[in-house]
Amino acid sequence: MISRYLFENGLSPRILALVAVILAAAIILPALNLALPESHPLHVPTYMISLIGKYLTYALLALSLDLVWGFCGILSLGHGAFFALGGYAMGMYLMRQIGPRGVYGNPLLPDFMVFLNWKELPWYWSGFDQFWFAALMIVAVPGALAFVFGWFAFRSRVTGVYLSIITQAMTFALMLAFFRNDMGFGGNNGLTDFKDILGFDIQADTTRAGLLAASAVALALGVIVTARITGSSFGKLLIAVRDAESRTRFLGYRPEMVKLFAFTTSAVMAGVAGALYVPQVGIINPGEFAPANSIEVVVWTAIGGRGTIIGPIVGALLVNAGKSWFTGALPELWLFALGGLFVLVTLFLPKGIVGTLQEIAASASERRKARKADAEAVDGEQASPVGAE
Amino acid sequence: MTNRADTILYLDGVSVAFDGFKAINNLSLVLKKGEMRAIIGPNGAGKTTMMDIVTGKTRPDDGSVYFDGTVDLTTHDEAEIAILGIGRKFQKPTVFESLTVEDNLALALSGSRRVFDKLFRKAGTEKDRRIREILETIRLTHRRDWLAARLSHGQKQWLEIGMLLGQDPKLLLVDEPVAGMTDAETEETARLLREISASHSVIVVEHDMHFVRELGVKVTCLHEGSVLSEGSLDHVSSDPRVVEVYLGR
């Protein structure tokens, strides 16, 4: 039923093209890495594969933020928290996969627990040796947090800047909690030294290529889900809540439920992105909860164009590619460049890159239509339409 | 007092205070089924607060509020009251600017308000017929595919009234519908409201006396949170107390 819902009565050609491009990247990039010899000019080096894979998870994170911010008007400054929680769930699975190969050789306890002199595995680590359980937690933990958080925040009608502030506080509180050693998540150092995933060596080129492909497929699914949600009549309701929340309430809707659904769905998407991010960068630590990370996601989304599906993806890819280049060439200046970019986009491209391009295209097609209508009016000598303007 | 069973709206002894300021003070107001009523009064008379109470946005400190003779409105919230059949138009036109005129109306049409139904259900032909009907009534047929943001101020007001009609409420509360309208638009709005009142109960809050005269209905004048005078417009406007609050003493 779900697959029928996703594919029946089609997605717009623009979305289908986007999905096709992402899936093509999932096939072509790994192929260029694995099939071509290193000397070949089109060979894609493995570090590049991991880098692009990481960008794709960022793109999925930005898309998830766009679902709540661009389409529903909820500016979350704490989306990094859901990303990091998904990442930690994956990290816990990867830690358990290490088994006796750790520095201390303890078959059950991860190294940091042995170091802390812990004798047994905390209860909340059990089950994470099974991939299916970790996969479940990757969606369930961020989803449950978003649901509980949203339930209280939206029902108390916390909106606008106040909501943004408490989302920021949420991710900050989680960061402080995860920094503590006795939380049992590796404290300051987080989780790292991963060996393999689903039995594949995590350092192997083939695994890296596979992770990129998985990230691309996840992003493509995220695009389809977002397009279906925003294209349904529920999507119109999302926009209605964004434009005039009180009006929806007096029409008999419950905007808090609309927001709660969007927020929870979005958190799940962010969690999946985080889970794919961790094996590609090889570490997850409390720094991922830092408020600045969440704000950076907002910047990507704003630059690409919020309220569009392509926008946040373009924004995340462009800004991060820029970041990789910039931090190599002029590392001290990167944050100034990012801040300046945000200011410039807000001032001159308030709809972002994609939003502005779409606007130009729309007004061009409108002008064409108007010219056509004028021509028809002259031909047919129609009476001018009535209406006060 | 009037028999409550025949009323669409029944307010008795309602009071509400904000930080000690009595916005509504022992207000009693009765609207019969099918009646259209104009409510006038100087700024701060409590007109908007009264609407807030009826639509569940504000809870009264005291007094009873009944809808349709039997439903105690003080025990319901905004969404429930909207579904019960009370539609409200705000003072400032409030429409969904980035949706088309058609989509604005489609969201207002009576039907399921549940999130999951909205995700999976498609619009039917019955809905389409209703939308066309409403577009005729509010004179926006030729603007069906426009984004609401592109409409003129007056057209937005009409669209909002159209959205109320889509809800198919028993009672419409209309807050200052002609503020900022041209004379031609004002007359058109009066005509529209008279047309609507043929099949709905309506309360119109308005400052514009010319417009109230156009409506030609019973008038209630509020002052400092309670009813100052009630009757035909001529009766109310010749009431010396009304003249006093409007012209100052």
Automatic annotation (TrEMBL), chain A:
It is a multi-pass membrane protein. One of its GO terms (cellular component) is plasma membrane. It comes from the Bacteria. Its main location: membrane. It is found in: Cell membrane. The chain crosses the membrane at residues 15-35, 42-61, 67-90, 102-119, 131-154, 161-179, 211-239, 260-278, 298-321, 333-350. GO terms for molecular function: branched-chain amino acid transmembrane transporter activity. InterPro entries: ABC_transp_permease, ABC_transptr_urea_perm_UrtC, LivM-like. Keywords: Cell membrane, Membrane, Transmembrane, Transmembrane helix. PANTHER family: HIGH-AFFINITY BRANCHED-CHAIN AMINO ACID TRANSPORT SYSTEM PERMEASE (PTHR30482), SLR1201 PROTEIN (PTHR30482:SF4). This is Urea ABC transporter permease subunit UrtC. It comes from Stappia albiluteola.
From TrEMBL, chain B:
Coiled coil: none annotated. SUPFAM superfamilies: P-loop containing nucleoside triphosphate hydrolases. One of its GO terms (cellular component) is plasma membrane. Keywords: ATP-binding, Nucleotide-binding, Transport. Gene3D superfamilies: P-loop containing nucleotide triphosphate hydrolases. It comes from the Bacteria. CDD domains: ABC_Mj1267_LivG_branched. Residues 9-249 form the ABC transporter domain. One of its GO terms (molecular function) is ATP hydrolysis activity. Pfam families: ABC_tran. This is Urea ABC transporter ATP-binding protein UrtD. The lineage of its organism: Bacteria, Pseudomonadati, Pseudomonadota, Alphaproteobacteria, Hyphomicrobiales.
